Amino acid sequence: MNLLSLILVNLGRNKRRTVLTMMSVMIALFLFCALRGVLDTLNESIKIGSESKLITRNAISLIFPLPLSYRERLATIPGVQEVSYANWFGGRDPVDNSNFYAQFAGSENYLTMYRADYDIIAYDKPPPGAAVPPGMDPTLAAYMLEREACVVGEKLFKRMGWKLGQQVKVSGTIFPGTWTFNIRAVYRAKDPQFGEEALFFHWKYLSEKGMGGQGQVGWYTLQLADPGRAGDVTRAVDALYENSAASTHTETERAFQAGFVSMYGNVPFLIGVIGLAVVFAILMVAANTMMMATRERTAEVGVMKTLGFEDGTIFRIVLAEAAVITLGGGIIGALLAKWAIESSGFNAGGLLPPMTVSWATVATGVGIAVLMGATSGIIPAVQASRLKIVDALRRVE
Amino acid sequence: MAIPIIYNVRNVMQRPWTTLATGWGIAMVVMILVGAFALASGFQAALVESGSPNNAIVMRVGADSEISSGVGRDAANIIKALPDIATGPDGRPLVSTDMVVLTNLPRLGGTGGSSNVTIRGIDPASLTLRDQVKVTSGRMFTPGTGEVIVGRRISPRFQNLAVGNQIRFGQQSFNVVGLFEADGSAFESEIWGDNAVLMPAFQRTDAFQSVTFRMRNPGQFAELEKRLEADPRLGVQVKTERAFYSEQSALLANMIRFAGVLITLIMAIGAIFGAMNTMYAAVSQRTREIAVLLTLGFSPFSIMTSFMAESVILCLIGGVLGVLLALPINGITTSTTNWSSFSEVAFAFRVTPMGVALGLLFSVILGVVGGFLPARQAAKQSLAGSLRAA
User: Fold this and answer.
1) Which residues in B lie closer than 8 A to residue A38 (C-beta atoms)?
2) Which secondary structure element, helix H or strand E, spans residue A150, and what is its range?
3) ipTM of the assembly?
4) Quick one: pLDDT at residue A6?
5) Using the beta-carbon criterion (under 8 Å), do B28 and A277 form an inter-chain contact?
């Protein structure tokens, strides 16, 4: 006799119960994988940023600027290939305050320094008669030649329903007033971790309009000739400014990004705890159902044993039943989580990379489902296999 | 006629393992709901209680937090001279011009990392103005010296923030001379020192971040707000301190609540399936009993309500268990970055009566929803069929 067909018939006996249990396992695994996905995403965001770029910021904190005059000195430090700089621009959508997207004011070489990380998918041509310097990226020429131009990410562009050449208004919180930007290009990230929800514009515009031309810079980005020398360069930069009015703190771009994640404090821990609680709760529910199912069939097990089924076979049948329910529910739940989370495209307003549920998490989820099946099935399985025929049949009413 | 509720209570108690297993599933759902609300309430309470309804806070127009605000010295002097400001016991006006900056400090403990901590430079009058602030160990900083006091909530979370330590901001070192409490408010996540020393150290000389004062007549806040915001010399916005801190906390607290409710709802569906399983099993096991009840003249409706009641009892047991499990988190301190101010806020979970009531109500709803279909099945049972089955 085929054991598999026996298992399937047993599962089909109380279809409602099988389906309900499977669904509760599915939901548990969905939630578990979705929560783990959040942690995956946080971990992913630690990996954003290059090891061959250094970020130099004010030693006190990012809100304190550095003088523009550092630029020349930084460029002469051995191992530094190119220096760019940028400021964070905290502006709000004047129409909808809760609509948040990242805004950066970068130096004239800021976008070209990251040129390998994105593609320009749409761009305006520079106005006729404009003198385009030789060697200028033609896709960025219109942006480079206009003070109020900006470049925006494709996702932001679509979300806001913007058009190329459109004027965008932002009201400043750090730099008061209403700011206007003209969209001259749209970029698509080559690596999804680069993010597509940001607006980049000219540092010069910010400096002239917002900072009274004082030449203050949020942070410097140093492109290294050789990532292996990051340590030397870091020490050289920080030593150079250690006793100046604005001392610096330098780290790799990756470490800089990781710093933001550490600001989440205990949140990842809490998410982990909730994930475990979910699994544990559903484990109890599943175990209870399996016990119910076995208890109902006491007499039947007795008959099977009379027919010559061995204890081990009975044990395996009951355990396999539990495994089919939890594994079925688990696989559907885990895959559903991956699909639902990743297609939602949620990315915390550009602060985080797009949400992902890694295959490792899906595998962990399925592994947990298997474990769940084993633990929830083991007691009823042992009970059924140890059952004495006499006891089983005596209970027949 | 209704079936006595004790019938259901006994039934639930008759099968302790099933009850416990189903109840446990419900308990986890309720625990997470109560926990999420405790987290949000704790965070919100810490911030809201930082502000007093009698104080007004003045910031630059358009600024959404103290960090992004700047009030020039001239404007600050105009505000300081307002007749609307209450005076303290010493006859001086209760007003503080604050410098607020962030500094990036390394965390203590294994995971490492660093976070932004708020540093507040204050005027001497500030301590009368914020009377909830009390130095609990060490002593108050001496004005005019390089001394600071540290909020008691962040002191154990970061390096060099214990009494006797030194911290360096820019070119200057500061001695930590005391720890302070402030009724659990967000001030306990800040470092305080004298403006006269801190501002030069941070090269902030021409502007303060905010001006806070005790209103002589809080009832006339609206008029005061209008007058100050219309003054072209100032370029400021005015809020009551309470309203300001409520706004600061609203975004994150709402996000925590939203996430909590979302997770709970998804989990609740799983738990409802569990409860349905249990109730269906209960109904099918008691086919004969139901038949007897019908024979005795109980209406199908009262049988239905009886099974619904049983489901509610079952889930309520889980709910109570969940609340009991959630209670111990009350008072546990945790921390996060408040994304409105971009700085670390440490606060305690706060299990509120509201949160507990909500958790229990939720478990009742789970009972009703999970019990409805099985109860309907029980009520629809035909008398002849049931007795024949028996």
Assistant:
1) none
2) strand A149-153
3) 0.81
4) 80
5) yes
